[in-house]
Please model this.
Amino acid sequence: MPVHHPCDTPASASSSPQPGAVSPDWAAIAHELEIADERAFNMAWVAVDRHVAAGRGARIAFRFLAEDGSHHEVSYRQLAELSDRFANALTALGVGKGDSVFLLCGRRCELYVTVLGALKIGAVVSPLFPVFGPEPIRNRVAQAGGKVLVTTASAYRRKVAPIRAELPTLRHVLVIDDLGGAPLPEMHDWNTLMAAASAAPVLVPTAADDPALLHFTSGTTGTPKGALHVHQAILMHYATARRALDLQPGDIFWCTADPGWVTGMSYGILAPLAVGVTSIVDEAEFDALRWVATLAAERINVWYTAPTAVRMLMKARPALVAGRSFPALRFIASVGEPLNAEAVRWGMATFGRPIHDTWWQTETGGIMIANAAGELKPGAMGRPVPGVAAHVVRRAGEPKGTVEIIEAPDTVGELALETGWPSMFRAYLGQPERYRACFAGPLYLSGDLVRRDADGFFWFVGRSDDVIKSAGHLIGPFEVERVLMAHPAVAEAGVIGKPDPLAGESIKAFVTLKRDVEASEALRAELLAHARRSLGPAVAPREIAFAEALPHTRSGKIMRRLLKARELGLPEGDSSTLE
Ligand code: ATP
Ligand code: MG
Model:
Protein backbone atom coordinates (compact mmCIF):
# COMPACT_ATOMS: atom_id res chain seq x y z
CA MET A 1 0.00 0.00 0.00
CA PRO A 2 1.60 3.28 -1.05
CA VAL A 3 1.49 6.28 1.28
CA HIS A 4 -1.61 8.10 0.15
CA HIS A 5 -2.27 11.76 0.36
CA PRO A 6 -4.53 11.97 3.39
CA CYS A 7 -8.09 13.06 2.84
CA ASP A 8 -9.23 13.17 6.43
CA THR A 9 -7.44 16.30 7.62
CA PRO A 10 -9.57 17.98 10.26
CA ALA A 11 -11.01 21.44 9.97
CA SER A 12 -8.31 24.07 9.77
CA ALA A 13 -7.30 26.21 12.73
CA SER A 14 -9.58 28.62 14.39
CA SER A 15 -8.69 32.05 13.06
CA SER A 16 -8.78 33.65 16.50
CA PRO A 17 -5.48 33.01 18.23
CA GLN A 18 -5.30 32.70 21.99
CA PRO A 19 -4.57 36.01 23.69
CA GLY A 20 -0.82 36.34 24.04
CA ALA A 21 0.02 34.02 21.16
CA VAL A 22 1.66 36.07 18.45
CA SER A 23 0.57 34.53 15.21
CA PRO A 24 3.44 34.55 12.76
CA ASP A 25 2.43 35.31 9.31
CA TRP A 26 3.25 32.06 7.54
CA ALA A 27 3.16 33.86 4.21
CA ALA A 28 5.83 36.22 5.50
CA ILE A 29 7.93 33.26 6.60
CA ALA A 30 7.51 31.68 3.17
CA HIS A 31 8.69 34.99 1.73
CA GLU A 32 11.71 35.03 4.07
CA LEU A 33 12.52 31.57 2.72
CA GLU A 34 12.37 32.87 -0.83
CA ILE A 35 9.49 30.54 -1.64
CA ALA A 36 8.10 32.22 -4.68
CA ASP A 37 6.14 29.56 -6.47
CA GLU A 38 4.52 26.18 -5.96
CA ARG A 39 7.54 24.29 -7.24
CA ALA A 40 9.73 25.93 -4.68
CA PHE A 41 7.46 24.50 -1.99
CA ASN A 42 9.73 21.55 -1.89
CA MET A 43 11.58 20.99 1.35
CA ALA A 44 14.81 20.07 -0.33
CA TRP A 45 14.76 23.14 -2.57
CA VAL A 46 14.05 25.41 0.39
CA ALA A 47 16.72 23.66 2.46
CA VAL A 48 19.51 23.60 -0.08
CA ASP A 49 19.05 24.90 -3.63
CA ARG A 50 17.73 28.32 -2.71
CA HIS A 51 20.99 29.04 -0.84
CA VAL A 52 22.90 28.19 -4.00
CA ALA A 53 20.58 30.35 -6.09
CA ALA A 54 21.20 33.22 -3.68
CA GLY A 55 25.00 32.88 -3.94
CA ARG A 56 25.56 31.03 -0.67
CA GLY A 57 26.58 27.74 -2.26
CA ALA A 58 30.11 27.72 -0.87
CA ARG A 59 28.90 27.67 2.74
CA ILE A 60 29.50 24.37 4.53
CA ALA A 61 26.25 22.49 5.15
CA PHE A 62 27.56 19.47 7.06
CA ARG A 63 30.84 18.63 8.71
CA PHE A 64 31.02 14.88 9.33
CA LEU A 65 33.18 13.66 12.21
CA ALA A 66 34.27 10.08 11.64
CA GLU A 67 34.91 7.69 14.49
CA ASP A 68 38.67 7.69 13.84
CA GLY A 69 38.93 11.45 14.35
CA SER A 70 39.04 12.38 10.65
CA HIS A 71 36.39 14.64 9.16
CA HIS A 72 35.01 15.77 5.84
CA GLU A 73 32.70 18.54 4.75
CA VAL A 74 30.02 19.09 2.16
CA SER A 75 28.94 22.53 0.96
CA TYR A 76 25.44 23.66 0.08
CA ARG A 77 26.40 23.60 -3.60
CA GLN A 78 27.77 20.06 -3.40
CA LEU A 79 24.66 18.96 -1.55
CA ALA A 80 22.43 20.52 -4.22
CA GLU A 81 24.36 18.77 -6.99
CA LEU A 82 24.57 15.41 -5.26
CA SER A 83 20.88 15.42 -4.39
CA ASP A 84 19.97 16.34 -8.00
CA ARG A 85 22.00 13.37 -9.15
CA PHE A 86 20.35 11.09 -6.66
CA ALA A 87 16.91 12.39 -7.63
CA ASN A 88 17.71 11.60 -11.27
CA ALA A 89 18.98 8.15 -10.29
CA LEU A 90 15.68 7.42 -8.53
CA THR A 91 13.71 8.66 -11.52
CA ALA A 92 15.73 6.37 -13.78
CA LEU A 93 14.71 3.46 -11.56
CA GLY A 94 11.06 4.37 -12.05
CA VAL A 95 10.66 5.83 -8.57
CA GLY A 96 8.41 8.87 -8.44
CA LYS A 97 6.07 11.11 -6.54
CA GLY A 98 4.38 9.45 -3.55
CA ASP A 99 6.66 6.38 -3.55
CA SER A 100 8.23 5.70 -0.21
CA VAL A 101 11.97 5.61 0.27
CA PHE A 102 13.34 4.07 3.47
CA LEU A 103 16.76 4.64 4.96
CA LEU A 104 18.70 2.27 7.16
CA CYS A 105 22.24 3.49 7.69
CA GLY A 106 24.44 5.54 9.97
CA ARG A 107 24.84 9.31 9.91
CA ARG A 108 26.99 9.51 6.79
CA CYS A 109 26.90 11.82 3.80
CA GLU A 110 24.93 9.37 1.61
CA LEU A 111 22.04 9.47 4.08
CA TYR A 112 21.71 13.24 3.74
CA VAL A 113 21.98 13.11 -0.06
CA THR A 114 19.36 10.36 -0.18
CA VAL A 115 16.89 12.30 1.97
CA LEU A 116 17.23 15.47 -0.10
CA GLY A 117 17.24 13.72 -3.48
CA ALA A 118 14.15 11.69 -2.64
CA LEU A 119 12.33 14.81 -1.42
CA LYS A 120 13.18 16.55 -4.69
CA ILE A 121 11.15 14.07 -6.72
CA GLY A 122 8.24 14.14 -4.27
CA ALA A 123 8.97 10.73 -2.78
CA VAL A 124 8.08 10.15 0.87
CA VAL A 125 11.15 9.68 3.04
CA SER A 126 11.12 7.39 6.05
CA PRO A 127 14.30 7.06 8.12
CA LEU A 128 14.84 4.01 10.33
CA PHE A 129 17.20 3.75 13.28
CA PRO A 130 20.31 1.99 11.96
CA VAL A 131 20.33 -0.28 15.01
CA PHE A 132 16.86 -1.69 14.29
CA GLY A 133 16.66 -5.46 13.92
CA PRO A 134 14.73 -7.25 11.14
CA GLU A 135 11.28 -7.08 12.78
CA PRO A 136 10.93 -3.30 13.24
CA ILE A 137 12.31 -2.89 9.71
CA ARG A 138 9.87 -5.40 8.23
CA ASN A 139 6.96 -3.93 10.09
CA ARG A 140 7.57 -0.33 9.01
CA VAL A 141 8.47 -1.03 5.38
CA ALA A 142 5.45 -3.35 5.04
CA GLN A 143 3.04 -0.84 6.60
CA ALA A 144 4.14 1.92 4.24
CA GLY A 145 4.51 -0.25 1.16
CA GLY A 146 8.14 0.90 0.92
CA LYS A 147 9.48 0.83 -2.64
CA VAL A 148 13.12 1.73 -2.07
CA LEU A 149 15.53 1.00 0.75
CA VAL A 150 18.91 2.68 1.02
CA THR A 151 21.22 0.79 3.33
CA THR A 152 24.69 -0.71 3.83
CA ALA A 153 25.81 -4.13 2.63
CA SER A 154 26.22 -5.47 6.15
CA ALA A 155 22.84 -4.17 7.33
CA TYR A 156 21.27 -5.70 4.23
CA ARG A 157 22.80 -9.11 4.81
CA ARG A 158 22.07 -9.25 8.53
CA LYS A 159 18.69 -7.59 8.72
CA VAL A 160 16.98 -7.23 5.37
CA ALA A 161 17.90 -10.36 3.40
CA PRO A 162 16.10 -12.63 5.93
CA ILE A 163 12.83 -10.69 5.54
CA ARG A 164 13.08 -9.61 1.91
CA ALA A 165 10.58 -12.21 0.75
CA GLU A 166 7.99 -10.70 3.10
CA LEU A 167 8.34 -7.28 1.47
CA PRO A 168 6.81 -7.64 -1.99
CA THR A 169 6.54 -3.85 -2.53
CA LEU A 170 10.26 -3.34 -1.97
CA ARG A 171 11.48 -3.01 -5.53
CA HIS A 172 14.95 -1.57 -5.08
CA VAL A 173 17.65 -1.89 -2.48
CA LEU A 174 20.48 0.60 -2.90
CA VAL A 175 23.68 -0.23 -1.13
CA ILE A 176 25.91 2.71 -0.25
CA ASP A 177 29.11 0.85 0.50
CA ASP A 178 30.99 -2.01 -1.09
CA LEU A 179 28.55 -4.71 -2.20
CA GLY A 180 31.26 -7.34 -1.80
CA GLY A 181 30.64 -10.36 -4.01
CA ALA A 182 27.93 -10.75 -6.60
CA PRO A 183 25.02 -8.32 -6.30
CA LEU A 184 21.68 -9.88 -5.51
CA PRO A 185 18.77 -9.30 -7.88
CA GLU A 186 17.27 -5.83 -7.56
CA MET A 187 20.14 -4.62 -5.49
CA HIS A 188 22.02 -1.61 -6.75
CA ASP A 189 25.29 -0.03 -5.96
CA TRP A 190 24.53 3.52 -4.83
CA ASN A 191 27.78 4.93 -6.21
CA THR A 192 27.38 3.27 -9.62
CA LEU A 193 23.86 4.67 -9.91
CA MET A 194 25.10 8.11 -8.93
CA ALA A 195 27.92 8.00 -11.48
CA ALA A 196 25.50 7.05 -14.25
CA ALA A 197 22.81 9.57 -13.31
CA SER A 198 22.23 12.89 -14.99
CA ALA A 199 23.42 15.95 -13.10
CA ALA A 200 20.56 18.09 -14.45
CA PRO A 201 18.63 20.09 -11.86
CA VAL A 202 15.42 18.38 -10.88
CA LEU A 203 12.10 20.06 -11.46
CA VAL A 204 9.37 17.77 -10.12
CA PRO A 205 6.68 20.11 -8.81
CA THR A 206 5.53 19.45 -5.26
CA ALA A 207 2.80 21.39 -3.49
CA ALA A 208 2.85 22.67 0.09
CA ASP A 209 0.53 19.87 1.18
CA ASP A 210 2.19 17.00 -0.67
CA PRO A 211 3.45 14.21 1.62
CA ALA A 212 7.17 14.39 2.31
CA LEU A 213 8.12 12.49 5.46
CA LEU A 214 6.90 9.46 7.31
CA HIS A 215 8.12 9.27 10.90
CA PHE A 216 7.37 6.53 13.34
CA THR A 217 6.74 7.56 16.94
CA SER A 218 9.15 6.36 19.62
CA GLY A 219 6.97 3.51 20.87
CA THR A 220 7.14 4.69 24.48
CA THR A 221 3.51 3.94 25.21
CA GLY A 222 2.80 1.17 22.70
CA THR A 223 3.30 0.10 19.11
CA PRO A 224 4.89 2.96 17.15
CA LYS A 225 2.56 4.90 14.87
CA GLY A 226 3.55 6.22 11.43
CA ALA A 227 2.94 9.97 11.27
CA LEU A 228 2.83 11.53 7.81
CA HIS A 229 4.13 15.07 7.23
CA VAL A 230 4.00 17.42 4.25
CA HIS A 231 6.46 19.72 2.45
CA GLN A 232 5.31 22.94 4.09
CA ALA A 233 6.47 21.58 7.47
CA ILE A 234 9.73 23.29 6.63
CA LEU A 235 8.12 26.64 7.46
CA MET A 236 7.76 25.43 11.04
CA HIS A 237 11.22 23.91 11.13
CA TYR A 238 12.70 27.19 10.02
CA ALA A 239 10.58 29.47 12.22
CA THR A 240 11.20 27.42 15.37
CA ALA A 241 14.90 26.99 14.68
CA ARG A 242 15.15 30.79 14.58
CA ARG A 243 12.90 31.57 17.50
CA ALA A 244 13.08 28.58 19.86
CA LEU A 245 16.67 27.45 19.22
CA ASP A 246 18.08 30.91 18.55
CA LEU A 247 19.74 29.59 15.40
CA GLN A 248 21.29 32.27 13.21
CA PRO A 249 22.65 32.00 9.67
CA GLY A 250 26.33 31.09 9.78
CA ASP A 251 26.11 29.38 13.19
CA ILE A 252 27.78 26.05 13.95
CA PHE A 253 25.00 23.78 15.16
CA TRP A 254 24.96 20.33 16.68
CA CYS A 255 21.73 18.36 16.89
CA THR A 256 22.72 15.11 18.55
CA ALA A 257 19.57 13.16 17.57
CA ASP A 258 19.82 10.40 14.97
CA PRO A 259 17.67 11.03 11.87
CA GLY A 260 15.86 7.76 12.73
CA TRP A 261 13.94 9.90 15.23
CA VAL A 262 11.88 12.89 14.11
CA THR A 263 14.22 15.28 15.96
CA GLY A 264 17.16 14.14 13.86
CA MET A 265 15.21 14.84 10.67
CA SER A 266 13.41 18.07 11.58
CA TYR A 267 16.30 19.66 13.50
CA GLY A 268 19.26 17.56 12.35
CA ILE A 269 18.66 18.06 8.62
CA LEU A 270 15.83 20.35 7.53
CA ALA A 271 15.80 23.22 10.04
CA PRO A 272 19.55 23.91 10.06
CA LEU A 273 19.71 23.77 6.26
CA ALA A 274 16.72 26.07 5.95
CA VAL A 275 18.44 28.59 8.23
CA GLY A 276 21.75 28.19 6.40
CA VAL A 277 24.00 27.01 9.20
CA THR A 278 26.83 24.48 9.35
CA SER A 279 25.77 21.30 11.16
CA ILE A 280 28.20 19.01 12.88
CA VAL A 281 27.36 15.33 12.34
CA ASP A 282 29.11 12.90 14.66
CA GLU A 283 29.19 9.49 13.02
CA ALA A 284 30.15 7.83 16.33
CA GLU A 285 27.83 6.77 19.14
CA PHE A 286 27.46 8.59 22.46
CA ASP A 287 30.60 8.96 24.50
CA ALA A 288 30.65 11.54 27.29
CA LEU A 289 34.26 12.65 26.83
CA ARG A 290 34.00 12.76 23.04
CA TRP A 291 30.87 14.88 23.22
CA VAL A 292 32.36 17.44 25.57
CA ALA A 293 35.53 17.57 23.46
CA THR A 294 33.40 18.06 20.32
CA LEU A 295 31.45 20.94 21.86
CA ALA A 296 34.71 22.74 22.56
CA ALA A 297 36.80 21.78 19.53
CA GLU A 298 34.11 22.36 16.91
CA ARG A 299 33.20 25.70 18.49
CA ILE A 300 29.53 24.78 18.58
CA ASN A 301 27.23 27.81 18.93
CA VAL A 302 23.91 26.03 19.37
CA TRP A 303 23.48 22.53 20.76
CA TYR A 304 20.17 20.63 20.67
CA THR A 305 20.19 17.45 22.69
CA ALA A 306 18.04 15.21 24.91
CA PRO A 307 17.62 14.71 28.65
CA THR A 308 19.02 11.16 28.54
CA ALA A 309 22.28 12.51 27.11
CA VAL A 310 22.30 15.28 29.70
CA ARG A 311 21.73 12.73 32.48
CA MET A 312 24.56 10.57 31.15
CA LEU A 313 26.88 13.56 31.09
CA MET A 314 25.77 14.53 34.60
CA LYS A 315 26.41 10.99 35.76
CA ALA A 316 29.97 11.22 34.47
CA ARG A 317 30.65 14.00 36.98
CA PRO A 318 32.54 17.33 36.66
CA ALA A 319 35.96 15.90 35.74
CA LEU A 320 34.45 15.69 32.28
CA VAL A 321 34.87 19.35 31.49
CA ALA A 322 38.03 20.02 33.46
CA GLY A 323 40.38 22.28 31.55
CA ARG A 324 37.92 22.99 28.74
CA SER A 325 36.02 26.15 27.96
CA PHE A 326 33.11 26.75 25.65
CA PRO A 327 33.29 30.41 24.61
CA ALA A 328 31.39 29.79 21.36
CA LEU A 329 28.43 28.03 23.00
CA ARG A 330 25.49 30.44 22.99
CA PHE A 331 22.38 28.29 23.38
CA ILE A 332 21.62 24.78 24.63
CA ALA A 333 18.21 23.13 24.27
CA SER A 334 16.74 19.72 24.91
CA VAL A 335 13.71 17.67 23.89
CA GLY A 336 12.12 14.27 24.37
CA GLU A 337 11.51 13.97 28.07
CA PRO A 338 11.09 16.31 30.99
CA LEU A 339 14.21 18.25 31.86
CA ASN A 340 14.46 18.71 35.59
CA ALA A 341 15.56 22.00 37.12
CA GLU A 342 18.84 20.43 38.34
CA ALA A 343 19.78 19.62 34.75
CA VAL A 344 19.06 23.20 33.67
CA ARG A 345 21.33 24.49 36.43
CA TRP A 346 23.97 21.84 35.72
CA GLY A 347 24.15 23.26 32.18
CA MET A 348 24.84 26.68 33.67
CA ALA A 349 27.50 25.39 36.03
CA THR A 350 29.19 23.18 33.44
CA PHE A 351 28.93 25.10 30.18
CA GLY A 352 28.05 28.57 31.41
CA ARG A 353 24.65 28.27 29.71
CA PRO A 354 21.37 26.90 31.00
CA ILE A 355 19.61 24.12 29.09
CA HIS A 356 16.34 25.25 27.51
CA ASP A 357 13.62 22.64 27.54
CA THR A 358 11.42 22.34 24.44
CA TRP A 359 8.32 20.20 24.00
CA TRP A 360 6.95 18.61 20.86
CA GLN A 361 5.99 15.24 19.41
CA THR A 362 6.43 13.24 16.24
CA GLU A 363 2.86 14.28 15.43
CA THR A 364 3.54 18.02 15.75
CA GLY A 365 6.56 17.79 13.43
CA GLY A 366 8.25 20.77 15.08
CA ILE A 367 8.74 22.55 18.41
CA MET A 368 5.46 23.74 19.93
CA ILE A 369 6.45 24.88 23.41
CA ALA A 370 9.84 26.21 24.40
CA ASN A 371 11.90 28.16 26.85
CA ALA A 372 13.11 30.77 24.40
CA ALA A 373 16.35 32.72 24.77
CA GLY A 374 16.14 35.09 27.72
CA GLU A 375 12.89 33.74 29.16
CA LEU A 376 13.62 30.49 30.91
CA LYS A 377 11.95 28.85 33.89
CA PRO A 378 13.99 25.88 35.13
CA GLY A 379 11.80 22.77 35.25
CA ALA A 380 9.10 24.13 32.91
CA MET A 381 8.58 23.11 29.26
CA GLY A 382 8.25 26.76 28.30
CA ARG A 383 5.61 28.75 26.45
CA PRO A 384 3.98 28.18 23.07
CA VAL A 385 6.15 29.35 20.18
CA PRO A 386 4.78 32.15 17.98
CA GLY A 387 1.99 30.84 15.79
CA VAL A 388 1.02 28.07 18.20
CA ALA A 389 -1.95 28.43 20.52
CA ALA A 390 -1.94 25.90 23.34
CA HIS A 391 -4.64 25.13 25.89
CA VAL A 392 -5.15 22.95 28.92
CA VAL A 393 -8.33 20.94 28.43
CA ARG A 394 -10.48 18.33 30.09
CA ARG A 395 -12.17 15.70 27.95
CA ALA A 396 -15.89 16.13 28.56
CA GLY A 397 -18.06 13.02 28.74
CA GLU A 398 -20.93 14.52 26.79
CA PRO A 399 -21.34 15.13 23.95
CA LYS A 400 -18.75 12.48 23.18
CA GLY A 401 -15.52 13.77 21.70
CA THR A 402 -15.80 17.29 23.05
CA VAL A 403 -13.44 19.04 25.42
CA GLU A 404 -13.68 21.83 27.89
CA ILE A 405 -10.90 24.44 28.03
CA ILE A 406 -9.52 25.01 31.52
CA GLU A 407 -8.71 28.70 31.96
CA ALA A 408 -7.65 28.60 35.63
CA PRO A 409 -3.87 28.49 36.07
CA ASP A 410 -2.11 25.61 37.82
CA THR A 411 -4.83 23.10 37.00
CA VAL A 412 -3.83 19.76 35.50
CA GLY A 413 -5.39 18.83 32.18
CA GLU A 414 -4.47 17.57 28.72
CA LEU A 415 -2.32 19.71 26.48
CA ALA A 416 -4.26 20.67 23.34
CA LEU A 417 -3.04 22.71 20.37
CA GLU A 418 -5.06 24.71 17.87
CA THR A 419 -4.63 23.00 14.51
CA GLY A 420 -3.22 24.73 11.47
CA TRP A 421 0.53 24.98 12.12
CA PRO A 422 2.41 23.89 8.98
CA SER A 423 4.20 20.83 10.38
CA MET A 424 1.11 19.15 11.81
CA PHE A 425 0.90 15.46 10.86
CA ARG A 426 -1.71 14.69 8.25
CA ALA A 427 -2.37 11.02 8.95
CA TYR A 428 -1.47 8.03 11.07
CA LEU A 429 -0.44 5.44 8.53
CA GLY A 430 -3.28 2.96 8.05
CA GLN A 431 -5.17 4.22 11.12
CA PRO A 432 -7.68 6.90 10.03
CA GLU A 433 -9.91 6.34 13.09
CA ARG A 434 -7.04 6.80 15.47
CA TYR A 435 -6.06 9.97 13.62
CA ARG A 436 -9.57 11.39 13.85
CA ALA A 437 -9.70 10.58 17.56
CA CYS A 438 -6.76 12.97 18.13
CA PHE A 439 -8.95 15.97 17.35
CA ALA A 440 -11.81 17.75 19.06
CA GLY A 441 -13.09 20.43 16.67
CA PRO A 442 -10.14 22.71 15.94
CA LEU A 443 -7.99 21.24 18.72
CA TYR A 444 -5.33 18.54 18.51
CA LEU A 445 -5.22 16.52 21.73
CA SER A 446 -1.64 15.61 22.61
CA GLY A 447 -2.21 12.84 25.17
CA ASP A 448 0.17 14.61 27.59
CA LEU A 449 -0.96 16.06 30.89
CA VAL A 450 0.32 19.49 31.83
CA ARG A 451 -0.47 22.52 33.92
CA ARG A 452 0.02 26.15 32.90
CA ASP A 453 1.19 28.62 35.51
CA ALA A 454 0.07 32.23 35.87
CA ASP A 455 2.97 33.38 33.64
CA GLY A 456 1.81 31.14 30.80
CA PHE A 457 4.59 28.53 31.23
CA PHE A 458 3.57 24.91 30.75
CA TRP A 459 4.77 22.22 33.17
CA PHE A 460 4.82 18.57 32.21
CA VAL A 461 2.84 16.27 34.51
CA GLY A 462 2.92 12.97 32.60
CA ARG A 463 1.46 11.08 29.72
CA SER A 464 -2.20 10.35 30.21
CA ASP A 465 -1.38 6.61 29.75
CA ASP A 466 1.22 6.69 32.55
CA VAL A 467 -0.79 8.50 35.19
CA ILE A 468 -1.02 6.66 38.50
CA LYS A 469 -4.20 6.66 40.55
CA SER A 470 -3.31 6.16 44.19
CA ALA A 471 -5.59 6.71 47.20
CA GLY A 472 -7.74 9.18 45.32
CA HIS A 473 -4.77 11.13 43.93
CA LEU A 474 -3.79 11.38 40.26
CA ILE A 475 -0.02 11.25 40.16
CA GLY A 476 2.18 11.90 37.15
CA PRO A 477 5.30 9.70 37.35
CA PHE A 478 7.51 12.65 36.50
CA GLU A 479 6.42 14.48 39.65
CA VAL A 480 7.97 11.67 41.67
CA GLU A 481 10.95 11.14 39.33
CA ARG A 482 11.80 14.84 39.48
CA VAL A 483 12.09 14.69 43.28
CA LEU A 484 14.17 11.51 43.24
CA MET A 485 16.53 12.94 40.62
CA ALA A 486 17.03 16.03 42.79
CA HIS A 487 18.85 13.75 45.29
CA PRO A 488 22.61 13.88 44.66
CA ALA A 489 22.97 10.08 44.55
CA VAL A 490 20.38 9.52 41.81
CA ALA A 491 21.20 9.51 38.09
CA GLU A 492 17.85 8.46 36.66
CA ALA A 493 14.45 7.40 37.97
CA GLY A 494 11.42 5.63 36.46
CA VAL A 495 8.17 5.46 38.39
CA ILE A 496 5.19 3.14 37.90
CA GLY A 497 1.90 2.28 39.62
CA LYS A 498 1.37 -1.27 40.91
CA PRO A 499 -2.10 -2.62 41.65
CA ASP A 500 -2.85 -2.27 45.34
CA PRO A 501 -5.99 -3.59 47.03
CA LEU A 502 -6.35 -0.56 49.32
CA ALA A 503 -4.94 2.40 47.40
CA GLY A 504 -5.91 1.30 43.87
CA GLU A 505 -2.27 1.69 42.87
CA SER A 506 0.90 2.02 44.91
CA ILE A 507 3.98 3.79 43.64
CA LYS A 508 7.21 2.01 42.89
CA ALA A 509 10.38 3.77 41.76
CA PHE A 510 13.34 2.29 39.92
CA VAL A 511 16.50 4.33 40.27
CA THR A 512 19.99 4.19 38.84
CA LEU A 513 22.78 5.76 40.85
CA LYS A 514 25.54 8.17 39.91
CA ARG A 515 28.98 6.75 39.32
CA ASP A 516 30.84 6.04 42.58
CA VAL A 517 27.62 5.76 44.62
CA GLU A 518 26.96 2.35 46.23
CA ALA A 519 23.44 0.97 46.58
CA SER A 520 22.60 0.15 50.20
CA GLU A 521 19.66 -0.26 52.55
CA ALA A 522 20.66 2.99 54.22
CA LEU A 523 20.51 4.82 50.87
CA ARG A 524 17.14 3.25 50.09
CA ALA A 525 15.76 4.49 53.44
CA GLU A 526 17.27 7.92 52.82
CA LEU A 527 15.66 8.15 49.37
CA LEU A 528 12.29 7.05 50.69
CA ALA A 529 12.50 9.68 53.43
CA HIS A 530 13.68 12.34 50.95
CA ALA A 531 10.71 11.58 48.67
CA ARG A 532 8.27 11.57 51.59
CA ARG A 533 9.55 14.94 52.80
CA SER A 534 9.09 16.54 49.39
CA LEU A 535 5.97 14.82 48.16
CA GLY A 536 4.05 13.85 51.28
CA PRO A 537 3.17 10.27 52.16
CA ALA A 538 0.31 9.96 49.65
CA VAL A 539 2.47 10.69 46.58
CA ALA A 540 5.85 9.37 47.71
CA PRO A 541 6.92 5.94 46.42
CA ARG A 542 6.30 3.04 48.76
CA GLU A 543 9.06 0.96 47.19
CA ILE A 544 12.40 1.89 45.64
CA ALA A 545 14.45 -0.60 43.63
CA PHE A 546 18.02 0.03 42.54
CA ALA A 547 18.66 -0.81 38.90
CA GLU A 548 21.82 -0.97 36.80
CA ALA A 549 20.00 0.69 33.91
CA LEU A 550 16.42 1.58 32.93
CA PRO A 551 14.86 0.46 29.63
CA HIS A 552 14.89 3.22 27.02
CA THR A 553 13.50 3.68 23.54
CA ARG A 554 15.97 4.25 20.72
CA SER A 555 15.22 7.95 21.01
CA GLY A 556 16.27 7.79 24.66
CA LYS A 557 12.99 7.80 26.58
CA ILE A 558 12.37 5.79 29.72
CA MET A 559 9.89 3.00 28.89
CA ARG A 560 7.72 2.90 31.99
CA ARG A 561 5.37 0.42 30.35
CA LEU A 562 8.22 -2.10 30.24
CA LEU A 563 9.19 -1.46 33.86
CA LYS A 564 5.56 -2.13 34.72
CA ALA A 565 5.18 -5.22 32.55
CA ARG A 566 8.37 -6.71 34.01
CA GLU A 567 7.36 -5.89 37.57
CA LEU A 568 3.93 -7.46 37.14
CA GLY A 569 5.09 -10.36 34.98
CA LEU A 570 2.89 -9.22 32.08
CA PRO A 571 3.67 -9.56 28.36
CA GLU A 572 6.08 -6.82 27.33
CA GLY A 573 4.13 -5.75 24.23
CA ASP A 574 6.01 -4.09 21.40
CA SER A 575 9.62 -3.78 22.50
CA SER A 576 11.06 -3.48 19.00
CA THR A 577 12.23 0.05 19.69
CA LEU A 578 13.95 -0.87 22.92
CA GLU A 579 17.47 0.51 23.10
P1 ATP B 1 4.64 6.79 21.35
O1 ATP B 1 3.75 7.89 20.85
O2 ATP B 1 4.91 5.76 20.33
O3 ATP B 1 4.24 6.24 22.67
P2 ATP B 1 6.47 8.89 22.06
O4 ATP B 1 5.26 9.68 22.42
O5 ATP B 1 7.55 8.83 23.10
O6 ATP B 1 6.10 7.42 21.62
P3 ATP B 1 7.67 10.89 20.40
O7 ATP B 1 6.76 11.53 19.45
O8 ATP B 1 9.11 10.70 20.02
O9 ATP B 1 7.11 9.47 20.74
O10 ATP B 1 7.70 11.69 21.76
C1 ATP B 1 6.77 12.69 22.09
C2 ATP B 1 6.49 12.63 23.56
O11 ATP B 1 7.71 12.80 24.32
C3 ATP B 1 5.59 13.73 24.06
O12 ATP B 1 4.24 13.43 23.85
C4 ATP B 1 5.95 13.78 25.54
O13 ATP B 1 5.26 12.78 26.28
C5 ATP B 1 7.43 13.49 25.53
N1 ATP B 1 8.18 14.76 25.54
C6 ATP B 1 8.78 15.37 24.52
N2 ATP B 1 9.38 16.50 24.92
C7 ATP B 1 9.13 16.62 26.23
C8 ATP B 1 9.47 17.59 27.22
N3 ATP B 1 10.19 18.64 26.93
N4 ATP B 1 9.00 17.38 28.48
C9 ATP B 1 8.26 16.28 28.77
N5 ATP B 1 7.93 15.35 27.88
C10 ATP B 1 8.36 15.50 26.63
MG1 MG C 1 3.41 9.78 21.50
Q: What stands out?
A: Residues 75-230 form a domain with the Rossmann fold fold (CATH 3.40.50.12780). The pocket of adenosine-5'-triphosphate (ligand 1) is lined by residues 217-222, 224-225, 335-338, 357-359, 361-362, 381, 446, 448, 460, 463, 555, 557 (CB under 6 Å).
